[in-house]
Write a structure and sequence with these properties.
By secondary structure, this protein is mostly helical. It has five helices and no strands. The chain has helices at residues 3-18, 65-74, 82-91, 98-103, 114-121. The longest helix has 16 residues, at 3-18. The radius of gyration is 39 Å and the shape is flat.
Length: 136
């Protein structure tokens, strides 16, 4: 075996041992796995007088599920931003009979054209049989 090959083989064999004595390669900041502490035992609460709620009984907090759902969807009484307050003040209040007025045939509405009427009167479906109405 050539002398260069023997030197290379010895260098490769001793390379893993070269790092053993270098202290900056070993991480001493890790926790000590042998430093074990005893923790306090779990304590069971002493009051077992709680009873499950009866079906249909009012909730203990005084709130209904509907109130909780509305607050979750639309938020609670959070303070409004200055922009939101300004927009609400400028919009004013709607008349109490606004829904009846909108549904009244005498109410003027903006014509949307034949295309909108056709879209609204189209049968429901997934659109697989839809066509543009033109041939060609």
């Amino acid at each position: 075996m050539p002398r260069f090959a023997k030197s290379a083989l010895i260098a490769v064999a001793l390379a893993p041992l070269a790092g053993c004595g270098v202290n900056h390669l070993v991480d001493h900041s890790r926790p000590d796995e042998f430093a074990v502490e005893r923790q306090t035992p779990l304590v069971v609460p002493p009051d077992f007088a709680l009873t499950p709620p009866r079906p249909g009984a009012p909730r203990a907090g005084g709130r209904t599920a509907q109130q909780d759902a509305l607050e979750a969807m639309f938020g609670g009484p959070a303070p409004r931003s200055a922009i939101e307050t300004s927009a609400l003040n400028r919009s004013g209040t709607a008349e109490p009979s606004i829904r009846s007025t909108v549904a009244d045939p005498a109410t003027n509405t903006a014509p949307k054209g034949d295309v909108t009427r056709d879209i609204l009167s189209a049968p429901q479906g997934d659109g697989q049989a839809a066509s543009t109405g033109t041939t060609g």
